[in-house]
Every structure is written in structure tokens, then in C-alpha cells.
Design brief:
By secondary structure, the chain is α/β, with parallel strands linked by helices. Helix content is about 15%, strand content about 30%. The protein contains 5 helices and 26 strands. The protein is globular and about 55 Å long.
């Protein structure tokens, strides 16, 4: 079994961070509700067709306001509360991009995943290797490819040991990605925490390539296993590693109307937390999916706390007759609690995003 290095390197840090956030939330709940929450509300500009206050243009040839995406982000004032659009021209942007926690309300708009890409090649350290890191609440991206090229660059030796090499790391709440692509091999997308929405996205990798403690819906996405292409020596891959750690934790990954493709053999997921939760609904599963489907990983003999659900799926990998015996079945009403957009959007934050069309 491949031991993904993000577990020993970052698991303790992630758990401590999430615990501290829960404690602070309990202590300051009244103050947060009446003061901070309103300050974090991003203002829409109804006079603009995209509902943004300002557009910053990034063009590598010098025809925009900045040549790099990072410089454009750096130009935005701290604690900005108005939606700012960063319009990124076609190009392969070889840079490591970070949105700091004090810069919310940013809409990154690319020219399409085949035209606009952000690429870098850091590896080994899960906590710092991400090509793109988003820390604040209220971030939107559309039409951009995020790629960590370390394990997948031309000439890479497929027999070499895989290393954690993240394409993205998402910390903030209320983040949405439309028509984006995420490329990596191990730990492609770290969905750390918060509520996130992925629509019509492409995500590829081999081991734990969608992982973390996020509360997220992946809708109409393609999830592509590349173990057979980039890591043929590995016996199998793992698509998800969801990190829910208690029965009270609202987090979970929901995949609906998705397509699971790829080469090699893979589990749909393994338990990155004692109460790990993944729901796959009305999706197409290829024959890359192993018959058992799921792996308890570090929580063998505690499978009763894991929530892994497959409902109304089809395709050669959707036969559940040989799945693990602890695969869950939910009633229609129970399932709908996760399929409904209210699972991540009870207060209607998605409707308050700038226009992405």
C-alpha cells in the first residue's frame, strides 16, 4: 500500500488547526455573528455586467496591467470587500500563486483550460508544494488549469517513487471552481476545509488525489485515474482520502453526475479520518474501479463510523456486489441532504457570486 506522505507531515497540523477553529468559534460565536460575518460579505457591483467592482488584466506579453498572476493578486488591498476580477489572458504561467487570507473577494477568470494554465513543480512537502494556494473565503475561479508537473512532466521516470506534489490547496470557505482542470499524481487537490463547489471540472491523479476535510460538492466533473499511465509499478490508486474526524463534523465529499475514468486500478477512496464521508451519486464508474471499492486504511475494525455511499451509479465499475460489507445505504431523504446544494449553501452564498458566464 502506498503511504501518502501528507498523512504524517500534515495530518497533525490540519487536525490542530481545525480543532482550534472550532474552539474559537464556540468562544466568540456571538461576536462573529454580529460583526465579522458582515465584514466578510463581498459586495456585488450591479452596475457592472460581471457584478465586479474592478477588473485587473494579466497578460504575459505586457498588454495588461500585470505580467504575472501573483503581482495582480498582490495589488489588491488587504481586507478588500468588493469583488475584483482578475482576467488572465491565454498562456502557460510558470509561477507559484498564493492568495493570502486577508485578500478575499477575488474572481480569477482564465480563457479556458486549454488556453490558460498555472504550472509549477514543487514536491515532497505537502504543506508547501501546492502550485496554487487559496486561503481566504469568497474565491471564484473559472477556465483555468492548475498543474503540478513534478510527477507528470515529460521524461519523468514512472518507476521512481511518487512524491506528494499538489496542484491546489484550498483553505477558505465559500470557494467555487467552474470549468477548471487540476493535474497532479499524488495529492493533486487538497480540499482542506470549508464549503466548496466544483462544477464541470477535470481532476486527475493516482493516489489520494482529492483529499482533506472539506465540505464539498463535485458536480458534473471528470475524475481521471492516471496510475496506469504515470505509475504503472504501483498496484493500485486511491481517488479520495476524506478527512472527517467526528460524527459532528459536517464535512464530506459529494460527487454527483460525475464520470470516473482512467487507466490502472483504483479504490474510490480510503479513510483519511475516523468518520470519513464520501457520497457518489448517479455517476459513471469505469472498470478502473476495484471490486471492493473502498479501503478503511488506518481505521480497520472501526468501519462502522465510515460513511461511503454509492447510489444510482452505472458503468462497468458500478457493480457493488463485491464491495466492502460496510458500504452504506441511505434512504432517499438522507441522500437528499447531501445532494441538495443546501449541503454547502444554506445561506445562499453561491447566488451572491459574480457572474461567471
Amino acid at each position: 500500500m502506498v503511504e501518502s506522505l501528507h498523512f504524517p507531515l500534515c495530518k497533525e497540523l490540519e487536525v490542530k488547526m481545525r480543532f482550534l477553529q472550532h474552539v474559537l468559534a464556540l468562544i466568540f460565536i456571538v461576536l462573529l455573528y454580529f460583526s465579522i460575518s458582515k465584514a466578510l460579505e463581498c459586495q456585488l457591483n450591479n452596475a457592472n455586467k460581471f457584478n465586479v467592482a474592478h477588473t485587473i488584466r494579466v497578460d504575459q506579453s505586457g498588454k495588461g496591467d500585470f505580467k504575472t498572476i501573483q503581482n495582480a493578486i498582490d495589488s489588491i488591498p488587504s481586507n478588500n470587500d468588493k469583488w475584483i476580477r482578475i482576467l488572465i489572458s491565454p498562456g502557460n504561467f510558470r509561477e507559484k500563486v498564493t492568495i493570502p487570507a486577508n485578500k478575499p473577494c477575488i474572481f480569477l477568470r482564465g480563457a479556458g483550460t486549454k488556453l490558460t494554465s498555472i504550472e509549477w513543480g514543487d514536491h515532497m512537502d505537502t504543506c508547501d508544494s501546492a502550485t496554487f494556494t487559496s486561503s481566504p473565503d469568497n474565491i471564484v475561479a473559472k477556465g483555468i488549469t492548475f498543474k503540478n508537473i513534478y510527477n507528470i512532466q515529460p521524461g519523468h521516470d514512472a518507476k521512481k517513487k511518487m512524491e506528494p506534489a499538489l496542484a491546489v490547496r484550498i483553505y477558505g470557505d465559500k470557494s467555487a471552481f467552474y470549468n477548471c482542470a487540476f493535474f497532479g499524481l499524488q495529492d493533486t487537490l487538497w480540499d482542506v476545509q470549508g464549503r466548496h463547489y466544483f462544477y464541470n471540472c477535470y481532476i486527475e491523479g493516482a493516489v489520494d488525489f482529492i483529499f482533506g476535510g472539506g465540505q464539498s460538492i463535485y458536480e458534473r466533473c471528470e475524475i481521471n485515474l492516471t496510475a496506469g499511465k504515470y505509475a504503472p509499478a504501483y498496484p493500485n490508486g486511491y481517488i479520495t482520502a476524506q478527512g472527517r474526524n467526528s460524527s459532528a463534523d459536517p464535512s464530506g465529499f459529494v460527487f454527483k453526475y460525475c464520470v470516473f475514468t482512467g487507466s490502472g486500478k483504483t479504490y474510490l477512496g480510503r479513510a483519511y479520518g475516523a468518520y470519513s464521508r464520501v457520497i457518489i451519486y448517479n455517476s459513471v464508474l469505469s472498470d478502473a474501479i476495484l471490486p471492493s471499492g473502498w479501503d478503511a486504511w488506518h481505521y480497520v475494525h472501526h468501519e462502522e463510523n465510515l460513511i461511503y455511499v454509492e447510489a444510482d451509479c452505472k458503468g462497468p465499475g458500478a457493480n457493488t456486489s463485491k464491495r466492502v460489507p460496510w458500504l452504506r445505504k441511505l434512504s432517499a431523504s438522507q441522500l437528499n441532504q447531501f445532494l441538495n446544494i443546501s449541503y454547502i449553501d444554506k445561506e445562499g452564498w453561491i447566488a451572491k457570486l459574480p457572474k461567471v458566464s
